[in-house]
Amino acid sequence: MERDLFGFLINSDIQVDIDNRRLTKVSSEGTDNVINFGAITLKETMMRLLVYLLTHANDVAISKDEILVKVWDENNLTSSNQRLSQMIGELQSKLSIIGVPTDFIINVRGVGYKVNGYCIRPLYY
């Protein structure tokens, strides 16, 4: 039985829903049973970039050239180092809205990017 990738779970509180291009975070605070919920939606290319990083770059740097080919070129989009850098910055800003630290995606000088030491688990259906 083949399973399809639904998304990812980052740490234990952030869910990445690939098809809906949505990230949600559910957390509770203190003893008052207060539950916080946050959600953001990503554009298609930004989600493709995030999924590629989560799939391939957990604690291992992935080259900029490979990212450009897989995220842009293979989807008939024009790629450039400037677009990649800009998209990473925008992605980091979006992720920070739901509480993901800015060091979640790191630029490894002269190599590319990596996801920095977070527990990332694929979710299947």
Automatic annotation (TrEMBL):
Keywords noted in UniProt: DNA-binding
Highest taxon in the source lineage: Bacteria
Cross-referenced PROSITE patterns: OMPR_PHOB
Known DNA-binding region: 6-117
Pfam entry (one): Trans_reg_C
Gene3D superfamilies tied to this protein: Winged helix-like DNA-binding domain superfamily/Winged helix DNA-binding domain (1.10.10.10)
One GO term of the biological process aspect: regulation of DNA-templated transcription
Protein name (database record): Winged helix-turn-helix domain-containing protein
